[in-house]
Design goal:
The protein has 82 residues and is α+β, with helices and mostly antiparallel strands. It is 35% helix and 34% strand. It has a four-stranded antiparallel beta sheet.
């Protein structure tokens, strides 16, 4: 089952929709990654850095956008990367 399927209940539909639009438009550029971690750039109104990493069954995320830095909630850039 896809990771987004597991996480979709924790992320609002508006964020999911916007993130999916970013993904479909090619805004996500994977910089590097492996089975445990991933770093990407997402081009929106600015260029934002998204980091994902996994420890056991937990996925940790961060984004350099103002929404994530202020709210600490999954943003459209993280969703696009996922």
């Amino acid at each position: 089952m896809a990771l987004t399927t597991h996480l979709s209940g924790y992320v609002g539909s508006k964020v999911q929709g916007r993130g999916y639009s970013y993904y479909r438009s090619g805004a996500v550029q994977i910089i590097n990654g492996n089975g445990e971690e991933l770093r990407a750039l997402v081009v929106g109104s600015d260029i934002y850095t998204v980091n994902l990493y996994r420890e056991d069954d937990t996925v940790y995320v961060s984004c350099s956008c103002p929404y994530f830095e202020g709210e600490r909630k999954t943003c459209k850039h993280i969703w696009a990367t996922l």
